[in-house]
Structures are given as C-alpha cells and as structure tokens.
Amino acid sequence: MLVAWEAGWADPGVAAAGQQWVRRNRHALQAEAYHDGTYLNVMDTTGDNAAVVARSYGAQYPRLQALKHQYDPTNRFRFNANILPA
C-alpha cells in the first residue's frame, strides 16, 4: 500500500500548522506499517532527508554519490530526493 500525504493552504500563516498535521498523521500511520520503506517520488520535501535517501538506495548510494560528484559537484539539482555529492 502506498500512502502519500499532500496538503496545501492559501494563507502562509498556517503553513507550520499544516506541516505539523501531516507529520503527526504520517507518524501515526507508520506505527501500523509492516514496512518502513520510502517511495522517493512522494517523500516529505521539508527538512533534511539525507538519511532516508541513503537508506532507500542502500549499497548503491556510494556509487550514486560518486556520479553526483562527477556531474553535479555543486549540488545544483538538489530539489528532489537528493543524493549528496561525495
């Protein structure tokens, strides 16, 4: 089963409360999950997700970091499930 949380608001003043609501409900649902996997295309874009991304790629992550370092050493393309340059 895949559950993707999506929330939006017109008033920037409620952004923090909306993000907290999503995190709280996601955490409650994860407690019932049988697998703590991550589908990287729908992961949380707030905060530091480096550990989640690294765990998702497993043993291939160092190789992907080397490629990222070769082709994007300044981390210009970082607005996704980002692989940090080696």
Describe this structure in words.
Helices cover 41% and strands 0% of the residues. It has a domain at 12-71. The chain is an all-alpha fold and 86 residues long.
Instruction: Write down the Rg.
Output: 15 Å
What number is the mean pLDDT? 81
Give the termini separation.
33 Å
Largest sheet: none
Q: How many helices?
A: 3
Helix/strand order: HHH
What would you say about this model in short?
The chain is mainly α and 86 residues long. It has helices at 15-30, 50-57, 61-71.
State the main characteristics:
86 residues, mainly alpha, 41% helix, flat
Summarize the helices and strands and which ones pair or pack:
Elements: H1 15-30, H2 50-57, H3 61-71
